[in-house]
Design goal:
The chain has no helices and 24 strands. It is elongated and about 85 Å long. Among the domains are: 45 residues, no CATH class; 51 residues, no CATH class. Helices cover 0% and strands 46% of the residues. It has 216 residues and is mainly beta.
Length: 216
C-alpha cells in the first residue's frame, strides 16, 4: 500500500509509523513538518540540521553560522574552515599575512597568492619580479604573464616581452604568433584585421559582437 509523500512506512494510507526526512510522527499517526531547515526532529525540536545550517542547542532551531569569512562551522560559535586568505582561529577567521592565499595562523603562510614567493621562514610573501610565478628567489621566474616568455639570464630565468612583428597585435605568444589583437581588430590567420565589434574591448576572434576574445 503506497504511503503519503511525508511517510516512509505506514499501516494504512493515512496511518504512518515512520516519517520521511524532515518530518516527525504526530500522536495521530500523521507526519508533521519539522522546523525550517531541519532534517531530523522530535516534535518541534530539531536534532539534525540540513547543511550548511547549525543546530542551536538552546532553541532546537537551525541557524546559519554568521562568523565572518567562515565557510564551515561545527557550531554557531566554532569555525572549522575559512575563505581564502583567512585561517580558522576556532571562534573567528583571522587574516593571513599580506599576499598569502593559505595559512595556518597570522604569521605562518603555506601558499602565497599568484605572483608571490614564500620567504623568510614562511612568514613573508614577496612579489616576483615581472613574472607570474618564481622559485628560489624573486628574480628566478618559472612562468610569465601573457605577452612574455621565459628567457635564461645566467643561472636564472626572467620574463622578456615576446615580439612577433604583427601590426596591431596586443601581445604575442611566440615568435611570429599573435595571441590577441588591439581593440578594434580581430585575430584571423595570425593577422590583426580591422573591424572588430566595439563591445570587444579586450580583442576579438571575429567581427561579430559575440566573437570577443576570451581572457587568459
Amino acid at each position: 500500500m503506497p504511503c503519503g509523500v511525508r511517510c516512509s512506512t505506514c499501516t494504512t494510507n493515512i496511518l504512518c509509523t515512520v516519517c520521511s526526512s524532515g518530518y516527525y510522527l504526530g500522536s495521530n499517526g500523521i507526519c508533521i513538518t519539522c522546523p525550517s531547515n531541519c532534517q531530523v526532529c522530535t516534535s518541534s525540536i530539531c536534532t539534525t540540521c540540513n547543511s550548511p545550517y547549525i543546530l542551536n542547542n538552546s532553541t532546537g532551531l537551525c541557524e546559519i553560522c554568521t562568523i565572518e569569512y567562515a565557510t564551515a562551522c561545527s557550531s554557531l560559535t566554532t569555525v572549522t574552515s575559512c575563505s581564502s586568505t583567512y585561517y580558522s582561529a576556532v571562534t573567528y577567521c583571522g587574516s593571513c599575512v599580506l599576499y598569502c592565499g593559505t595559512c595556518t595562523n597570522s604569521t605562518i603562510c603555506q601558499v602565497c597568492s599568484s605572483g608571490y614567493l614564500l620567504q623568510y621562514q614562511n612568514s613573508v610573501c614577496s612579489s616576483c619580479t615581472n613574472c607570474q610565478s618564481c622559485s628560489g628567489t624573486t628574480n628566478n621566474c618559472t612562468s610569465c604573464w601573457n605577452g612574455y616568455q621565459l628567457t635564461q639570464n645566467g643561472t636564472s630565468y626572467i620574463c622578456s616581452a615576446t615580439t612577433c612583428g604583427i601590426s596591431n597585435c596586443s601581445y604575442c605568444t611566440a615568435n611570429s604568433v599573435c595571441g590577441n589583437c588591439q581593440s578594434g581588430y580581430y585575430l584571423s590567420s595570425n593577422n590583426c584585421v580591422y573591424g572588430a565589434s566595439l563591445v570587444c574591448s579586450g580583442g576579438a576572434v571575429g567581427n561579430q559582437p559575440n566573437q570577443c576574445a576570451v581572457s587568459k
